[in-house]
Specification:
Layout (H helix, E strand, L loop, with lengths): L3 E7 L13 E6 L2 E7 L3 H7 L7 E5 L5 H4 L2 H10 L6 E6 L2 H12 L7 E6 L6 E4 L3 E7 L7 E7 L5 E2 L1 H7 L6 H5 L4 E2 L5 E2 L1 H4 E2 L6 E5 L9 H4 L4 E5 L7 H6 L5 H11 L3 E5 L9 H8 L5 E3 L5 E3 L1
Parallel strand pairs: 3-4, 4-5, 5-6, 14-15, 15-16, 16-17
Antiparallel strand pairs: 1-2, 1-18, 2-3, 7-8, 8-9, 9-14, 10-13, 11-12
Helix pairs in contact: 10-11
Length: 304
């Protein structure tokens, strides 16, 4: 099975601390590298994580708060200094477009690669990126400004043909794709070998949902139901639930409620308030509702 991993570059919230960087992640899937949010300091975290800058082919920005996008123009500038030639695709709220254009004209007007901006409608659940192996769709969220999450889904793969069956029935190479697509095999004697004997099932497609800054949305689970891994912001513990509501953030308990209702595989917490030197309270409150919960931390790599 090809890698599907999440690299945590930053999991803190808006106020800078010595403990955490602000929000940024790399989604590594089938040899491709996608960035989700790009806070100040992200390119330093890329260095520390030993992730090749040039492999980042697209950046998905959830919303236009600085702790999610201040690092973008600096990273683009570094790409230019490194001689990047391949285009960089940037997805984000419509309002990001003119800001990015102004910054590019001011600081990055002589580079040899193209930055292509794609405006996303943060109010709709739609596919905004697709290739042969995956799709990325938006997840509408409720924050103080337009904001959305992103859901990465593998496309189903074909079954695996059994090598022993190929050898036993002397199946020619030219017929392997037909059998993977569901065809039976007819021997030279006219015997029909059913497809079910010739293949083993494909792996179940994996999926990762990134839910950035948002207040608790009771029916959010419908959009992330059954995902392999869910990242949901958990800025506060339950004793600050009123503050979470006021600033359109979530508690770790509320993140766990979404994970529980959506029957996800595992839950990742992040976007911690700077008031917490130890996030164990957030973890314990979430695990009381959804046991398979984990804290994120800079430098972690998580298998989806």
């Amino acid at each position: 099975m090809e890698p599907f991993k999440i690299h945590i570059l930053g999991c803190g919230s808006a106020l800078p601390t010595l403990q955490h960087n602000a929000s940024s992640q790399i989604v590594e899937i089938r040899g491709k590298m996608f960035m989700v949010d790009c806070a100040e300091g992200t390119q330093i975290q890329l260095r520390r994580s030993k992730i090749n800058f040039q492999r980042v082919q697209a950046v998905f920005i959830s919303h236009m708060h600085g702790d999610h996008c201040f690092g973008l123009i600096g990273m683009i500038s570094t790409f230019g200094l490194m001689g990047r030639t391949s285009p960089l695709e940037v997805y984000g709220p419509e309002a990001l477009g003119p800001v990015l254009d102004m910054l590019m004209k001011t600081f990055c007007n002589d580079y040899s690669f193209e930055v292509r901006f794609h405006a996303v409608d943060t109010t709709k659940n739609v596919v905004v990126y697709e290739d042969r192996s995956l799709t990325v769709e938006t997840i509408p969220l409720q924050h103080r400004i337009p904001c959305c999450g992103y859901l990465f889904r593998e496309k189903p793969t074909l079954p695996h043909i059994r090598r022993d069956m190929i050898d036993f029935y002397e199946i020619p190479f030219s017929q392997i794709n037909n059998i993977k697509a569901g065809a039976d095999w007819t021997t030279p004697d006219g015997d029909i070998i059913p497809n079910s004997r010739l293949v083993t099932p494909a792996e179940k497609p994996r999926s990762y949902a990134y839910c950035s800054d948002t207040k608790y949305i009771p029916d959010l689970w419908k959009l992330v139901e059954g995902v392999s891994t869910l990242y949901h912001e958990s800025t506060y513990a339950s004793d600050y639930a009123d503050r979470a509501k006021m600033y359109y953030h979530s508690t770790s308990q509320q993140a766990a409620m979404v994970a529980r209702d959506a029957h996800v595989g595992k839950l990742l917490l992040g976007h911690y308030s700077a008031r917490y030197n130890d996030e164990s309270k957030l973890l314990n409150e979430a695990r009381a509702i959804f046991p398979n919960t984990f804290l994120t931390n800079e430098g972690m790599t998580i298998d989806v």
